[in-house]
Amino acid sequence: MDFRRLAAAAAIAVSVSACVADTAGNSPSRAPTVAMPEVPLRATSQGDAMRRLGVLKIHATDASRDVPGGVALVRSSAEMGEPQAYFWLGVLNYFGTGMPRDYAEAYRNFRIAWEGQVTRAALYIGRMHANGFHLVRDVGQARHWFELAAARGEAEAQYSLAFSLVYGSEDAKDHAAGLVWLQRAVDAKYPASVSSMARLYEIGRGVPADLGRAAFLYQQAADLKDGYGTSNLGSLYLAGRGVPQNDGRAVQLFRQAIALGYVPAKNRLAWMYENGRGVPRDLVEARRLYAEAAGLPAEAPPSPRHDLVQ
How far apart are CA 296 and CA 147, in angstroms? Predict the structure, then answer.
């Protein structure tokens, strides 16, 4: 995901936040008071093991998957004062996993986790401020929380902070600072940051345009299994920009991006089939991929032909 796609997602989230708050029974607030739990926050081996087991049960993809049982274990761990358990309860509240989505409860659990020195909790608090989830939308507060997590080395927060600085409101933009934080996330090998930095070099935004550097970074993003970066590297090979022109390599990269879940790459691969670039021309496959990229139902196979004259 690049900055522009992330910005679009944020805009959509903001537009629906009021509706989400109403359905969850959460009225927006600037700084809700959070009551700390009666049991002191402290990490213990037993609580940590219980929380880890619960998370594994929730995210299992085989027969061991047990969301209700996993949630119960995470709750029990939190009741023992395990700070990471409060973070995971916040995540479950935030996404509505194993329980109704509840931004008010998510915020409470993230704040408790932050008090327990769980750095990643600040990232989610920042997101809630940025999108107006349970809170009055406050870009300044969002940036404050992103920076708290970023300063502690949280790569995703560094990326989010860079986004707010590069693509924030005109009176709050700071490209130079944004690039510093983005580079820190790149150094930490956070995939989306690597592909985003590549894009900046490709278009020359905030940095001198350098297609060779862009291709190098897109390759790093591809190695980190970032679908957006993988697909964009394919486009460079297709056009011969910053790398030798190579249709076959472009097709390979578009397929890899699709396997990584990056749907727009289907549109690019469909064009390759339509025009016979790197693959034999195949309009049936092109139509199938275009339909999938557009979110349309698959095209029905053609009916058998029955000639009137035998």
Answer: 41
What is this structure's pTM? 0.79
Cα-Cα-Cα-Cα dihedral sign, residues 135, 140, 143, 145: negative
Class of domain 14-26+40-188: mainly alpha
CB neighbours of residue 32 within 10 Å? 14
pLDDT tens-digit map of 33-71 = 788 888 889 999 999 999 999 999 999 999 999 999 999
Q: What average pLDDT does range 5-27 have in this prediction?
A: 39
Which of 102, 131, 128, 107 is closest to 34 using CA atoms? 107
Report the pLDDT averaged over residues 9-17: 37
Mean pLDDT for 225-252 is 98
Its sign, for the CA torsion 133, 134, 139, 140, is: negative
Gap between the Cα atoms of 94 and 125, Å rounded: 10
From CA 24, how far away is CA 134, in angstroms rounded?
A: 9
- Residue keyed to tokens 């959070």: 34
Write down the residue that tokens 């409101």 correspond to. 169
Domain ranges of the chain: 14-26+40-188
